[in-house]
Design a protein that fits this description.
By secondary structure, the protein is α/β, with parallel strands linked by helices. The chain has two domains: 274 residues, Alpha-Beta Complex (Spore Coat Polysaccharide Biosynthesis Protein SpsA, Chain A); 124 residues, 3 Solenoid (UDP N-Acetylglucosamine Acyltransferase, domain 1). It has twelve helices and 27 strands. The longest helix has 10 residues.
């Protein structure tokens, strides 16, 4: 069977309702899938684009916490013409006659919205996470799902032992059927039992001589009736409850994925994933012309860069950067960086709108209509995340805090040695962190 002839009645469901506590303070005022990434995108653009590139054009996004900006982004970005059945639609947590509580977990979120999913009469329902980076053709999962006559297919990825203790680990038989599941196994003896067999290591082309484990990616393809039956209970999560139970009652297969995949669920993984995009051979590449990542079309002017030294960095649209030095940085939309700045390993998320001449109030390089928030002259910033609409006065210094404990302050946070300046913060001139 080729992907050209696969059935089109697949419904995509993207989980975007979690509070995102591990990404705080980036999730202080926004849902986790709405967090900006790569200078001009949002996290939710990744699973939606993977669906669209796989000819899945009926997509629901389930939301709950701080969802206003996520709703705004989706409604302004993903619209289909009136001659197609495609849609990207928000389903927010709500009180009904049968449910009056918040989503209790991923499975509960799907359960509470199941009536909407069944209205489209899908044969298959694809459940996705809203905070992962990867390129995947879901038609390949569907092709294998049909050929193996599986009731449920779980996308998995080989990982090393050091990563296995923080993921859901699957044991597969020789036909890649899942026969066992353990959530974040830390017992060494249990881990040893879950190792991928040498024969499978060889067949997958993995480096030999190391222990490999098959981890769940949080991507599940269900037959519709199987999903309905699996949710006829009050169990909260797919990973903790539904998937382990289904292994013993249904034909559950693994789709082994061997490309780049990153769960950007915490600040360090988010930070590292962003900076890795600056490499010429980036592990996650926005330059895949056959796998484009879609986002809101803003029609911004090209960036202006004057007398700068820029190394291995991403610069989004609508920026102004003056006589500064940037090393391994991601500079987001509408950013202004004043003269004499030095930024290293820093993410600047940019601004939501441009300022005006009246707002700048002076007649120097700021007077030609720059963002109302900006980075002033002679700022030195290393290993930091500058969230949206932040104003840094002249001479602000933010130093690398690697090795220091996490900290919550009135105008900044530290997570894993990374300084985070939260959204809409203003730091006066001369501030030192």
């Amino acid at each position: 069977m080729t992907t050209e002839f696969l059935p089109k009645n697949v419904l995509g469901v993207i989980m975007g309702g979690g509070a995102g506590t591990r990404l705080f303070p980036l999730t202080k005022e926004r849902a986790k899938p709405a967090v900006p990434i790569g200078g001009k995108y949002r996290l939710v653009d990744i699973p939606i684009s993977n669906c669209l590139n796989s000819d899945i054009r009926q997509i629901y996004v389930l939301t709950q916490f701080n969802s206003a900006s996520l709703h705004r982004h989706i409604h302004s970005t993903y619209s289909f013409d009136q001659f197609t059945r495609g849609f990207v639609e928000i389903l927010a947590a709500q009180q009904t006659n049968t449910a009056c509580s918040w989503y209790q977990g991923t499975a509960d979120a799907v359960r509470q919205n199941l009536r909407y999913f069944l209205q489209t009469d899908p044969d298959y329902i694809l459940v996705l996470s809203g905070d992962q980076l990867y390129h995947m053709d879901f038609r390949l999962i569907l092709e294998q799902h049909i050929s193996t006559k599986a009731a449920l297919t779980v996308a998995t990825i080989p990982v090393a032992r050091k990563d296995a203790i923080s993921l859901g680990i699957m044991e597969l038989d020789s036909d890649k059927r899942i026969i066992r599941f353990a959530e974040k196994p830390k017992d060494p003896s249990l881990l040893d039992q879950l190792r991928i067999t040498p024969a499978m290591v060889s067949s997958l082309g993995l480096p030999e001589g190391s222990d490999w484990f098959m981890a769940s990616m949080g991507i599940y393809l269900f037959n519709r009736d199987v999903l309905v039956q699996a949710l006829e209970n009050d169990k909260a999560d797919f990973g903790k409850h539904i998937i382990p139970d289904s292994i013993y009652t249904e034909h559950v297969h693994s789709y082994v994925f061997q490309g780049y995949w990153e769960d950007v669920g915490n600040v360090k993984s988010f930070f590292d994933a962003n900076l890795s995009m600056c490499r010429l051979q980036a592990p996650f590449n926005f330059f895949e012309h056959r796998k484009p990542i879609y986002t809101h079309a803003r029609f911004l002017p090209p960036s202006k860069i004057l007398d700068c030294q820029i190394n291995q960095s991403l610069i989004a649209d609508g920026c102004v950067i003056l006589k500064s030095h940037l090393d391994n940085c991601v500079i987001g939309l509408r950013s202004f960086i004043g003269t004499g700045c030095r930024l290293k390993e820093t993410i600047v998320m940019g601004c939501d709108f441009f300022g005006t001449r009246m707002e700048t109030r002076d007649r120097d390089e700021r007077s030609f209509g720059i963002p109302h928030a900006s980075i002033g002259r002679d700022c030195h910033i290393e290993r930091a995340i500058i969230d949206k609409n932040v104003y840094l006065g002249d001479g602000v210094t933010i130093a690398d805090k690697t090795g220091q404990p996490d900290f919550d302050g009135p105008n900044h946070y530290i997570r894993d040695g990374i300084v985070i300046i939260p959204k809409n913060t203003a730091l006066p001139a001369g501030t030192r962190i």
